[in-house]
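Why this split exists: single-chain examples teach little about how molecules sit against one another. For that reason, every record in the complexes split bundles all components of an assembly together and asks for one structure covering all of them. Below is a record exactly as it appears in the raw files.
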Amino acid sequence: MTPRRRTKSLRSSGQERQASIITAAASLFAAKGFQGTTTREIAKTAGISEALVFKHFPTKRALYAAILAEKASFSELLATVEESARKRDDMRVFTMLAGYRIRRATDPTMLRLLLFSALERHEISDMFFQNQHRIFYDYLAGYIERRISEGAFRNVDPLLAARAFIGMVVHHRLLHEIFGVPAHRSPEDTVDTYVTLFLEGLRAQPSGAKKQRLTPG
Amino acid sequence: MTPRRRTKSLRSSGQERQASIITAAASLFAAKGFQGTTTREIAKTAGISEALVFKHFPTKRALYAAILAEKASFSELLATVEESARKRDDMRVFTMLAGYRIRRATDPTMLRLLLFSALERHEISDMFFQNQHRIFYDYLAGYIERRISEGAFRNVDPLLAARAFIGMVVHHRLLHEIFGVPAHRSPEDTVDTYVTLFLEGLRAQPSGAKKQRLTPG
DNA sequence: ACTCGGTGAGTGAGTGGTTACTTACCAAAT
DNA sequence: ATTTGGTAAGTAACCACTCACTCACCGAGT
């Protein structure tokens, strides 16, 4: 029996392969950084030979740039859709998208990629970073300015407030996901708490463990 | 026994050399990470041959561990002195030391070392990290609990509040010193503002540029 | 229905350069 | 004379990247 195109082909198309290389490389770069990842490892993770990686990307650095560019352009797309929702005054969609973007941008893999690229000072990373964080600033700018116009947050400097908020969220993720400090709440819960804490003027839930030690462990 | 040197010797003592290697290596590791730094570079920066580096430290990793251990033990020392000042109720010394420790721990070189060691997941970095952050938690724990007992910050969860504050400070440093986003105030000013902002319940200076755009640049 | 040649997917076995680390030896200080 | 600070010149392993080559697939000609 000579089966024809019945099951999956033995060879992938160029686009499929390119995507699988990017996926493999992204997780490795996020885990070990650019310098810490070898092209041999990338090939092994993608299940192909090292030579094929270089058929798709001229250099290791070009592959890295492609990954960051892809992530950045997806963020850009989300921002555009979100902006149009805001203009249509569709607050349900806007809030949902903004929430998704915040969760995505504070996702451990994204954070590790972001931090590594920033620390290792790749030229490409500037754009990536600016894109990732403009999201937050724009989102919070809108929210805070709206609330201020409603009479809330008297005497609050919006830029400082936005930065403070981002600081809380990012730092929580750093602590919990990257540095491995155990969280005393679920991530979702904590981000929500931070939002409340920040936006309502540092009034946290009264249910908090007041006598808790501040040093974890 | 005590060798008194009239003129500068052509050769350094073991301890002097060891210190100079650590200094050179620390700045390189902070700038490029463990993987990104070569032992040749370290030797060149310290102004000696590569072989001599290995006379003082058996492996590159051991040198790295020594750097983190040194930083951590200095922090520990500061914490001890500070604790004794607190017990003596010497608030002037306590506040001064605590301020110094916060400034030191948010210093760009320390932050880069910390972030790199955490991202690259060296076993040694755990201790280093725990030490660096216990500083904040303990300092803030004391402050916040004191203020709560005075009737301030009703319904505030101290752990969350401490984390939020650290988030603000660390994120500001990340933005400004590592990611290169221009600060709209001086670093010292901003840290102080964060302290005020946090401790007084998000009431920032009314002098703030209220109509400022939130996106820098 | 079958062959055959063109094309792109895919690889094993390198290449030169770099890395962490070593060896064998030297010179200054005591 | 011995110890200690110091080096030039290695070495084996590993790195990003290349080369020469094979194989799978498809469609045109018969």
